[in-house]
Design a protein that fits this description.
By secondary structure, the chain is of the alpha/beta class. The protein contains eleven helices and 26 strands. The chain folds into three domains: 174 residues, 3-Layer(bba) Sandwich (FAD/NAD(P)-binding domain); 114 residues, FAD/NAD(P)-binding domain (3-Layer(bba) Sandwich); 93 residues, 2-Layer Sandwich (Enolase-like, domain 1), CATH 3.30.390.
C-alpha cells in the first residue's frame, strides 16, 4: 500500500500516526510546501509575545519522520491531483503514485488588495516565517497597525502590545470578532483592549499603505493617516482547493468529506482546514478550521485509509481567547439568522453568558469572564439534549453541576458508559 499525504501540519501528522497504528510497514510519503515541520500555528502569537521559545512551537519531535518511516518532501508544493492515473503532480512536473491519498492542504490568508501591500513591513500573519519576521523587526517597531478584527488580528495585536508596541486595530465591520461574538460580548473585549492601550477603530478601513520601500503608515477611508512601522493583515483565510480543480472531487466551500473523511472520489481522503464536514450546530456541511478538528479528522482518515473502520460524527465551531485576563469562549451558532432560535443572555459588569437554542437544544453559546463550565455546554450541544427546563441554571454564574444530573439521567441512552460515568462522578462544583 502506497500512502501519500499532502500537508504536514496537524491533520497530516495525525494521519501518519493513525496509519502507523495499523500498518507499520507500508511506505508513506508526505509533501509539504513549508520547509519547517511540526510547529503549531495557534502558538505563533505566543512566540511573537515572547511567552514561548521557537523550540516550544513544535508539537512533535524532529525525529518524527524517521521514527515513523515517512519520506518527507518539505518545501515542495503539489500542483495537481490526478485521480485517473492515481498520481500527484509537483510544480516541476514530477509525478508520484499513490494507492491511498490524503489532502490536508489547509488554508491560506486572504490578501488585502490595496496600494502598498508589497512594501517591507507588511505581513500576512499565517506561517512561522511571518512570526519570525515580526520578531526580527521588533526593535524598529514603535507602532503597528492591524488590519482586521478576527482571531489572527487580535491575537497578533495582543502579542505586540505585550512587547511594548503601540497597537492600532483597524476593523472594517462594526465590532471585533464578528464571526464568533455578538455585539455585547464584543463590547467587553473592545473595552478591555482599550483599557490596556490598544486603539480599536471599528467601522474604518485602510485604503492605502504608504511609504518608500518600507512601511511608513496607512491611510484610512476617512482621510486620516496613521504613522506605523508594521502592518499586519488578518482578513481571514480560504481553503486551499486548487490541487483538485478539474477533477471529480466535490468542492463547495472546501473539499466535501463523508463520515469516513473520504471525498467523492475513491481512495482520496481529506482532513483539516480544507475539509468540509457535518456541522453539529447548524446541521449543515461547513468548515470548522480549528486545531482539534484537524487532529481528529486526520485520525479518522488515517484509520480508514489503513483499512480500519472509523467514523467522524461532525464538529462545531469553537474558539477561546484570553486578553489581559479576560477569558472568552464561543461555540456553534452565536449570531443566529432566521426563525426558530431562542436566545438567553445574562450580563454583569465582569461576565456575560449567552445561550442560543433551537427546538430546545443548545446550538451555540458565548462565555465571557467566566468560562470554567464550558465543557458542560459542549457536551449538551454534542448530544443534542433538550435543555428547555434548565436554561436558568445554564446561564447562571453559579451553575452547579449537580443541578444537571436529572437531565443527564433522563438522557442516559445518549451517552456511552464511559461518558456517563465521567459525567455523574465528576466534582459537583
Amino acid at each position: 500500500m502506497r500512502y501519500v499525504i499532502i500537508g504536514g501540519s496537524a491533520a497530516g501528522i495525525s494521519t501518519v500516526e493513525a496509519i502507523r497504528s495499523v500498518d507499520r510497514t507500508s511506505p508513506i510519503e508526505l509533501f509539504s510546501n513549508e520547509g519547517t515541520p511540526f510547529y503549531s500555528r495557534v502558538l505563533l502569537s505566543y512566540y511573537v509575545a515572547g511567552a514561548i521559545t521557537k523550540e516550544e512551537l513544535h508539537f512533535r519531535p524532529l525525529e518524527f519522520f524517521m521514527e515513523n518511516r515517512v519520506t518527507a518532501h518539505l518545501g515542495q508544493r503539489v500542483q495537481q491531483v490526478l485521480p485517473d492515473s492515481k498520481n500527484i503532480r509537483m510544480e516541476d512536473g514530477r509525478e508520484y503514485p499513490y494507492d491511498k491519498l490524503l489532502i490536508a492542504t489547509g488554508s491560506s490568508p486572504k490578501i488585502l488588495d490595496i496600494p502598498g501591500k508589497d512594501k517591507k513591513g507588511v505581513i500576512v500573519m499565517r506561517y512561522i516565517e511571518h512570526a519570525q519576521e515580526i520578531v526580527d523587526r521588533l526593535d524598529g517597531i514603535k507602532t503597528a497597525c492591524i488590519l482586521g478584527g478576527g482571531l489572527i488580528g487580535l491575537r497578533t495585536g495582543y502579542a505586540l502590545s505585550l512587547r511594548g508596541v503601540k497597537v492600532k486595530l483597524i476593523v472594517k465591520s462594526g465590532q471585533v470578532l464578528s464571526q464568533m461574538l455578538d455585539r455585547d460580548a464584543a463590547q467587553m473585549v473592545e473595552g478591555t483592549m482599550r483599557e490596556h492601550g490598544i486603539d480599536v477603530r471599528t467601522g474604518r478601513d485602510a485604503v492605502e499603505i504608504v511609504g518608500g520601500e518600507s512601511v511608513e503608515g496607512i491611510l484610512l477611508d476617512n482621510g486620516e493617516r496613521i504613522t506605523c512601522q508594521l502592518v499586519v493583515i488578518g482578513k481571514g483565510v480560504q481553503p486551499n482547493v486548487d490541487c483538485v480543480s478539474s477533477t471529480k472531487v466535490k468542492v463547495n466551500e472546501g473539499i466535501v468529506a463523508d463520515e469516513t473523511m473520504r471525498t467523492t472520489v475513491p481512495d482520496i481522503y481529506v482532513a483539516g482546514d480544507v475539509a468540509e464536514t457535518y456541522d453539529l450546530s447548524t446541521e449543515r456541511m461547513g468548515i470548522n478550521a480549528i486545531w482539534p478538528c484537524a487532529f481528529e479528522q486526520g485520525r479518522v482518515a488515517g484509520l480508514n485509509m489503513a483499512g480500519r473502520k472509523a467514523q467522524y460524527n461532525g464538529s462545531f465551531r469553537m474558539n477561546s481567547l484570553d486578553f489581559y485576563g479576560l477569558s472568552i469562549i464561543s461555540m456553534g451558532v452565536t449570531r443566529p439568522e432566521g426563525g426558530g432560535f431562542e436566545q438567553f443572555q445574562r450580563r454583569t459588569k465582569e461576565t456575560y453568558r449567552k445561550l442560543v437554542l433551537k427546538d430546545g437544544r443548545i446550538v451555540g453559546a458565548i462565555l465571557v469572564g467566566q468560562v470554567q463550565r464550558a465543557g458542560v455546554l459542549t457536551t449538551l450541544l454534542k448530544k443534542k439534549i433538550n435543555v428547555s427546563d434548565y436554561v436558568s441554571f445554564l446561564v447562571s454564574d453559579r451553575l452547579n453541576f449537580a443541578d444537571l444530573l436529572p437531565l443527564i439521567g433522563k438522557n442516559r441512552e445518549k451517552f456511552t458508559e464511559v461518558e456517563y460515568r465521567e459525567l455523574t462522578q465528576r466534582p459537583r462544583r
